[in-house]
Amino acid sequence: MHALQPEIFTNTPESESDPSTLTLETDTELSDIANTAGNYEVIAIHFNAFADGRGFSLARLLRERLNYQGKIRAVGDFLPDQMHYLARCGFNSFALPDGTKQETAKQCLKAFTEAYQISWDRKEPLFKRL
Known about the structure:
The protein is of the alpha/beta class and about 130 residues long. The protein is built from 5 helices and 5 strands.
C-alpha cells in the first residue's frame, strides 16, 4: 500500500545528526524548503506536542506538492494511536517516544485495513475502488 515499508525505531536514530537528514519543526513553511527538500534522504518532522496537527499537513504537502520520495520520519511527542494517520499523510519512519513499545506501534499501524478517504498514496476514495 505505501511506497516504503515503515521503519520503527525505539529511540531517535543516529541519522538525526546525519547530513542526509533534514529535521523540521511543525511550523516550517513549505516554501522555505521547496528548493532543497529533494537533497535529503530523510526529512524528520519534530512534534513538540501530540496535539499539534501541523506535522501531518507538512508531510502531506511534502509528498503531494514537492513529490518528495524519501523517508519522512515522525520524531518527538506523538501517540502510537496517531501512527496509522501519520502513515496516511506520508510518514514512513517513526522514532518512538520514550515508553512506547515497538509491538504497540506495529499494531497501531495496522489498526485499519481500509480507508474511505484518499491519501498521499491512494488517489481514489473507497466508493470508487469498489
